Amino acid sequence: MKDIKAFLKTKRKVVSYRPVCERIKDYKEVVNPPRSEHSEEQASRCMDCGVPFCHWGCPIGNYIPEWNDAVISQQWQKAFQLLNATNNLPEITGRVCPAVCEYSCVLGINDDPVTIRENELAIIEYGFKKGFIKPEPPKKRTGKKIAVIGSGPAGLSAAAQLNKCGHKVVLFEKDKKCGGVLRYGIPDFKLEKWVIDRRLDILEKEGIELRVKTQAGKDVTAKQLLADFDAVVITIGSRLPRDLKIEGRELRGIHFAMDYLMQNNRRVSGEDISNQEPIDAKGKRVVVIGGGDTGSDCVGTANRQGASCVVQIEVMPRPFECRTSDYPWPNYPLLLKTSSSHQEGTDRQWAVLTKKFIGENGQVTKLSCIQAEFTKEAPNTCPVMHEIPGSEFKIEANLVIIAVGFIHPEHQGLVKDLALELDKRGNIKTNPNFMTSKKGAFAAGDARIGQSLVVNAISEGRKAAHSVDTYLMGKSNLPIL
To answer: Is the predicted pLDDT of residue 380 greater than 90, yes or no?
Structure first.
């Protein structure tokens, strides 16, 4: 490190956001891009720890102290090379990753952690600006053909890694454009879609074939895939939403979060959605059920659509703002998170259980709710939820968005046709080498592990690629991480 005591002199400073009054009028990214000088200063806070726990916290094992050191020394190309060695989509994780690495930063024990995610974004965007990132097609082809089903972060990472080995990779995507949840599930104010298109252009020039509007299991059968390809990698995500099956669920105006987000993303990108029932928050009282990232994205979208009021409710109690003994360093803690969408305006309510939906003339008008509390009935047991007698109340709403998670991947179609074995949660079951119960068929990402983070999906795709390459060639030079 250039100055081994810089962490004592320089405080953490994150990049700024565009003004709320400006950004809620469009779908452009809310974050102002970091300047090189800012990133160099913040990278200097890295302590070059003897045991860098940020490596441990990062699912893809990013070389964080090493590329921080390169940034400090203004060796940006070296920083890019280090970042590129472990991450196929740093321009994505630099924007949407919850930065689990930062919660295991050693500096975070008694100070604010290093701005790792922002530094990562600065490195990759500097690399694109200076032309460091160029298509690098393999010099030799192996003659092996691999089908990757689904073009989300797991599929893109697996395809990129397998193409590096010289295999012919065909990426199948049922939607109009590739990107999966990155394109259709994440709003543009967090991830503009030109970022994805820029990466897809590189992958195509490196030799990966993108077959869009092609649904595996329908447009191309499971039998065809097994016959035409030496291996199949299933990265279809986990899109089956968890429902709230309570009285009044059939009322109009109640929608799943992903239906809402996907439709609006298509609208913003100019896709034709005339065949869909419009889901629009303009002038409406909106209630988002679910306090996670997806719910936050719905809050930001509703505000941009012109909702008159947005309320977000969560059944769990309000998290602490600082670590507790339940989440000691370097574990990822359950903490209160206030996103850019929350800053734009919403009434957040905690420990609220929705009991039923109330409506008039078939349209939802209110939610009947009750306060909940969580208590341990015995030592070393999980807290149990109880309703608080007499705490019933109602929330007015004419648009309700259900954002309470996903249960497992879709089983109809490819999964069923391949007769794949499932685990007890309904995810695709694999052996430690990512092989499913069908020989030659592999699975990775949310389809295998359940709903998770983008960075976990990238890790899954990379690990699966190593296993597929080993299966086809007997050994692999791809990294295991």
So the answer is: no
